[in-house]
Structure to design on (366 residues):
């Protein structure tokens, strides 16, 4: 039987930060630049602020129902049938999101590293890694995240620092991009970029109380916002505006441009190694959240028999998009523009319903 166990503040923050920021290594930066132009680097700070505001609803909800996860709260507030329906919608969203992110990663790997390998082969290798991490259990996933985040941070900041010779300050002008109004509206809508912080509601009983949950959520969003803003600023300084819109992976392209002498260039293989581990964590966290929700709905106590079918489902959904172009322009775009609804609205709905119906957690759970 897979046990969730308990883990602390640093492990949880590391896990959430990786799950959020790893998307900055995919096509999301290019998509953001297409929408708001040179204002993308501070547009994401608006997204982070909006996400923090939405997370406040989840924190208040979890504080009202201590030691309960979001699925148990849904059952308490909406009844078993209503709670199961809401939980199933969240389950569907998490597994589809994991599939989209996995397909995007696999497509980028095929373009840059394994051009002759079939997509299905790369997916199988990736899926086996996810199966292994899922069988480790939530506590071990969190502890692995705490270990790997220092290496990922060193690699990220290393690439940024080594890219400084390629920075041109004139490339971030006009500073308002396509206009301040569009930047603000887009930033609020694209708060879904930070929506992975809501997995805290699924993992809540494994955390150390509501005070820790508050610190974990807001700290994760704040740090992720700074890292994402820095990466977008680095992209904007490195690449001309017209070029940055077309890049499949700006971070990979930036790493490939590093040239610090004859014996220190072409460092992107190191970057890819780190990128792989970060993506493994992100997909596993989202999939594990989906598995926990599914097992709660159908009263399954042992998650081990569910892991392999869920990974097969993940693999099947991966095959739906026809190409990277469809993934980026349709699936990822829809997720960024509308993902805030399934990420944040369940907590808002449950909190309002709980206040109207006067529902609270048990006193002995506090």
């Amino acid at each position: 039987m897979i046990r969730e166990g308990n883990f602390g503040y640093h492990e949880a923050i590391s896990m959430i930060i990786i799950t959020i920021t790893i998307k900055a290594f995919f096509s999301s930066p290019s998509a953001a630049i297409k929408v708001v132009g040179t204002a993308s680097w501070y547009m994401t700070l608006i997204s982070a602020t909006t996400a923090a505001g939405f997370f406040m609803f989840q924190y208040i909800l979890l504080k009202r129902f201590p030691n309960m996860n979001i699925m148990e709260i849904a059952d308490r507030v909406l009844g078993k049938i209503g709670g199961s329906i809401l939980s199933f919608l969240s389950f569907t969203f998490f597994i589809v999101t994991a599939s989209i992110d996995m397909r995007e990663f696999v497509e980028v790997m095929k373009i840059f590293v394994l051009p002759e390998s079939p997509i299905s082969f790369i997916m199988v290798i990736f899926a086996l890694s996810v199966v292994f991490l899922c069988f480790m259990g939530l506590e071990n996933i969190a502890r692995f995240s705490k270990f790997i985040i220092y290496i990922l941070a060193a690699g990220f900041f290393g690439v940024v620092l080594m890219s400084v010779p390629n920075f041109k300050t004139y490339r971030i002008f006009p500073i308002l991009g396509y206009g301040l109004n569009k930047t603000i509206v887009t930033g609020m809508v694209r708060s879904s970029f930070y929506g992975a912080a809501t997995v805290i509601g699924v993992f809540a009983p494994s955390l150390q109380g509501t005070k820790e949950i508050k610190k974990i959520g807001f700290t994760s969003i704040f740090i992720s916002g700074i890292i994402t803003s820095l990466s977008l600023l680095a992209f904007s300084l490195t690449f001309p505006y017209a070029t940055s819109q077309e890049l499949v992976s700006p971070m990979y392209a930036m790493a490939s441009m590093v040239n610090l002498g004859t014996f220190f260039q072409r460092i992107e293989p190191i970057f890819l190694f780190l990128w792989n581990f970060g993506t493994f964590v992100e997909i596993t966290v989202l999939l594990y959240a989906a598995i926990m929700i599914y097992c709660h709905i159908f009263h399954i106590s042992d998650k081990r028999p569910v892991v392999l079918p869920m990974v097969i489902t993940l693999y099947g959904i991966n095959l739906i998009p026809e190409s990277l172009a469809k993934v980026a322009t349709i699936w990822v775009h829809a997720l960024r523009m509308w993902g805030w609804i399934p990420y944040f609205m369940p907590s808002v709905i449950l909190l309002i319903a709980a206040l109207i119906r006067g529902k609270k957690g048990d006193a002995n759970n506090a």
In short: The chain has a mean pLDDT of 91. The two ends are 27 Å apart (CA to CA). Residues 73 and 79 are 9 Å apart (CA to CA).
